[in-house]
Design a protein that fits this description.
The complex is a heterotrimer of chains A (about 280), B (about 250) and C (about 220). By secondary structure, chain A is an alpha/beta fold. Helix content of chain A is about 40%, strand content about 20%. Chain A folds into two domains: about 140 residues, Periplasmic binding protein-like II (D-Maltodextrin-Binding Protein, domain 2), CATH 3.40.190.10; about 90 residues, Periplasmic binding protein-like II (D-Maltodextrin-Binding Protein, domain 2), CATH 3.40.190. A five-stranded mixed β-sheet of chain A has the order 11-10-12-9-13, sandwiched between helices. A three-stranded parallel β-sheet of chain A has the order 5-1-6. The N and C termini of chain A lie far apart (about 75 Å). Helix content of chain C is about 80%, strand content about 0%. Chain C is built from nine helices and no strands. In chain C, helix 2 runs antiparallel to helix 8. The termini of chain C are far apart. Classes of the chains: A alpha/beta (about 280), B alpha/beta (about 250), C mainly alpha (about 220). The interface between A and C is medium-sized, with 35 and 30 residues. Chain B: Keywords: ATP-binding, Nucleotide-binding, Transport. Chain B: It comes from Lapidilactobacillus concavus DSM 17758. Chain B: InterPro entries: AAA+_ATPase (IPR003593), ABC_ATPase_HisP-typ (IPR030679), ABC_transporter-like_ATP-bd (IPR003439), ABC_transporter-like_CS (IPR017871), MetN_ABC_transporter-like (IPR050086), P-loop_NTPase (IPR027417).
Chain lengths: ~280, ~250, ~220
């Protein structure tokens, strides 16, 4: 009986203690400070955070377990350019919620994961020059009354992807429409198919990937934003960042970059090649 | 019209024959005691009468209703046939008074005040009026069993079944319970009592059944005579053992 | 963490409203469904027993997310208007009800058989015996495990986040991904879940104490 009273009293003391712990841990942001260039030179191994569920960009092949896509190929090319042909390259699938902690903790050395360069994000991490001039578009079922973002008026629902910049934009371009945010493109597309929304919005490249999967849906109205994708690295990795930028420049100049674009987007009907620089 | 009639009743548990070819008629007002070694089918026989066990074949009439007939309302039978268990089975979540009034109120739709009055009368009868607002867990075994008898009486049944009502009790309180049962018998209630209390069988019962191996081996209308000179071989053996212990 | 709480207070509160709403509906719904299916499982009727057991085994052994996704992605084809909040709450209700059914089944079966026999011998119907004798005793037994189920339910309501159900976890995901302050956001969200579940834990503990003291229910 007395034991129980003691236990109850002590539990209430724990609450403020817990809050204090939370605040302390919250304040100290742990950032890996070791230089990536030096680290990779020592280990001859680099790890990229990539998308695992984005057709054309980074999609895990169920049979082999390997991630395949434009970003994976580009990351491979950049790694070989910077660290030599023999470097071992690892790919770790990330999502919007895990990508930043994984980068911060050093689980991945860089992120190439359909991530739009924005001023807000630039406060937290550094971005390379853009490697893909994406733009936002909308996807609807063929025959839908929605022909462009302007048709998304009061009473309509538009499905976006959690944490993507596109949901911020759609609130600007279609302020009357209710925005539903789902965890990833696959779930957003499934929700669109089951009628949870009138349209789905995200970057055009991703939407084209979905149309290649199901022809009864198509992209309408063209792009209405410019959302360049950049490679993300931790702050204080200036040497690594400039090496990435140099490699990008070189791949563009020697035509390897264009070959990758053609490989992944060349077959997509209606793909507007001009958005790619 | 008899109270209870068994015609060629059998009861199986899988291959095991718990009751074999039972033929038995019990008239109103009879006080029947059933004795016999354990596993002889006494309790099973008793529990078939209010449908706690179903018979496998034969015919069983209770208050002129055929229990095997799907149209027979078992709840109506049970209204008229009370039961007192070896382990009392008082409702653990109800007070003593509520244990007695619940059946009349919910089943017979007797108004609460009237049910409570009747319950108090019965509590007086079993000598536990002062315990009315306690919980069963606060009573001794002997007290619990007297309450269980009051609970059965509260339904004003036509018969009451007693399943070894004193077997779980301390020897010094058995007498109190038997006294109550004797009072009930004197009021003319039809009683069927499975028991190991030979004194009760001899003094109060006006009919005695001896069972062994699922059969009724001896059916005596003179219990004193039975104890003096049992006819059945198994009964002789059984009584021999019991008297030896005594 | 404090900055997340102050800067995004209105979204977090909005999320808590949905979380509490969904949890309350699912709590009541799963309690009713759980008791009904527990009665099925222990029913003397063979077909009800089969239906009850199949229901419990299916929903107890499928991840909540799959159940919820089913109502969000598949069911709208047959039932229009099933949005994330509704689909998630239905999924949560059904999933939890399977566990509550199990809890109640165990509770009912732990009440001695003699109690049922006595009630039936007293002339009560099966349902009367359940209502007046068995369930009140079983309820007292199941209060502690039931409390755990309810706390789990509040936490599990975070499944709504995957269905755009506007709950606390959903808002947390959005805040984390827009501010990039992942750690702080989830710490704040965790604290708010704690604020919702702790009183529930204490309420259940209080009920447990009270009911064990009170004899009649």
């Amino acid at each position: 009986m007395r034991w129980r009273k003691i236990k109850q009293a002590s539990v209430w003391w724990l609450l403020p203690l817990f809050v204090l712990t939370l605040m302390l841990t919250g304040c100290g942001q742990h950032i890996v400070t070791k230089d990536v260039m030096q680290q990779v030179a020592e280990s001859n191994e680099i790890t990229w955070g990539v998308k695992g569920d984005m057709r054309l960009f980074g999609l895990t092949d169920i049979k082999s377990g390997q991630v395949k896509g434009f970003e994976v190929d580009l990351a491979t090319a950049i790694s070989k350019e910077v660290f030599g042909k023999e470097v071992k390259i690892n790919f770790v699938p990330v999502n919007s919620n895990t990508r930043l902690p994984l980068l911060r903790n050093g689980n991945v050395d860089a992120l190439i994961a359909t991530m739009t360069i924005t001023p807000d994000r630039k406060k937290e991490i550094d971005f390379s020059n853009s490697y893909f001039n994406a733009g936002q578009a909308i996807l609807v079922k063929r025959g839908s009354k929605v022909k462009s973002v302007k048709n998304l008026t009061q009473g309509t629902k538009v499905i976006g992807i959690q944490g993507s910049n596109s949901v911020v934009n759609i609130k600007k371009y279609a302020p009357q429409s209710e925005v539903l945010q789902l965890a990833d493109a696959a779930q957003a597309f499934a929700a669109l198919k089951s009628g949870q929304g009138d349209a789905m919005t995200t970057d055009n490249g991703i939407l084209y990937g979905l149309t290649s999967d199901d022809k009864s849906y198509h992209v309408v109205g063209g792009t209405f934003t410019k959302e360049p994708y950049g490679i993300g690295v931790n702050k204080h990795q200036k040497k690594f960042l400039s090496a990435i930028n140099q490699a990008l420049k070189k791949l563009e100049d020697n035509g390897d970059y264009q070959k990758l674009v053609d490989k992944w987007f060349g077959q997509i009907a209606g793909f507007d090649g001009s958005v790619v620089k | 019209m008899s109270m209870i009639e068994f015609h060629d009743v059998n009861k199986y548990y899988g291959k095991f024959k718990a009751l074999k070819n039972i033929n038995l008629t019990i008239e109103r007002g009879e006080v029947v005691t059933i004795i016999g070694p354990s596993g002889s089918g006494k309790s099973t026989l008793l529990r078939t009468i209010n449908g706690l066990e179903l018979i496998s074949s034969g015919q069983l009439l209770v208050d002129n209703h055929d229990l095997a007939d799907p149209k027979t309302d078992m709840n109506r039978i049970r209204k008229n046939v009370g039961m007192v268990f070896q382990h009392f089975n008082l409702y653990a979540n109800k007070t003593i008074l509520q244990n007695i009034t619940l059946g009349p109120e919910k089943v017979l739709k007797v108004p609460h005040v009237k049910a409570a009055e009747d319950a108090e009368r019965l509590l007086g009868l079993v000598g536990l009026l002062d315990q009315a607002h306690k919980l069963p867990s606060m009573l001794s075994g002997g007290q619990k069993q007297r309450i269980a008898i009051a609970r059965a009486l509260a339904m004003h049944p036509k018969a009451i079944l007693f399943d070894e009502p004193t077997s779980a009790l301390d020897p010094e309180v058995i007498g109190d319970v038997l006294d109550v049962m004797k009072k009930v018998a004197e009021q003319g209630m039809t009683m069927i009592v499975v028991t190991h209390e030979m004194g009760f069988a001899k003094e109060v019962g006006n009919r005695l059944l001896f069972m062994a191996d699922g059969e009724i081996r001896e059916d005596s209308n003179d219990p004193r005579e039975f104890f003096r000179a049992p006819q059945d071989e198994r009964a002789q053996e059984f009584l021999g053992k019991i008297l030896h212990v005594d | 963490m404090i900055s997340i709480l102050t800067a995004h207070w209105s979204e977090l509160v909005e999320g808590m409203k949905y979380t509490i709403g969904s949890s309350l509906i699912a709590l009541i719904g799963s309690l009713i469904l759980g008791i009904i299916f527990a009665m099925f499982v222990i029913s003397p009727n063979r077909w009800l027993r089969i239906i009850g057991s199949v229901y419990v085994e299916i929903f107890r052994n499928i991840p909540l997310l799959v159940v919820a996704m089913f109502f969000y992605i598949v069911m709208p084809r047959f039932v229009p208007g099933l949005d994330g909040f509704k689909a998630g709450t239905i999924g949560l209700t059904i999933y939890t009800s399977a566990f509550i059914a199990e809890t109640f089944r165990a509770g009912i079966e732990s009440v001695a058989v003699g109690q049922m026999e006595a009630a039936r011998s007293n002339g009560m119907t099966y349902l009367q015996a359940m209502k007046y004798i068995i369930l009140p005793q079983a309820t007292k037994i199941v209060i502690p495990p039931l409390g755990n189920q309810f706390v789990n339910l509040v936490k599990n309501s975070s499944v709504l986040a995957f269905l755009a159900g506007f709950d606390l976890m959903y808002q947390g995901n959005l805040i984390a991904s827009t501010t990039f302050k992942t750690t702080d956001t989830y710490l704040a969200v965790g604290l708010l879940y704690l604020v919702m579940t702790m009183p529930l834990s204490y309420l259940m503990r209080y009920l447990e104490k009270r009911w064990s003291r009170l004899p009649t229910v």
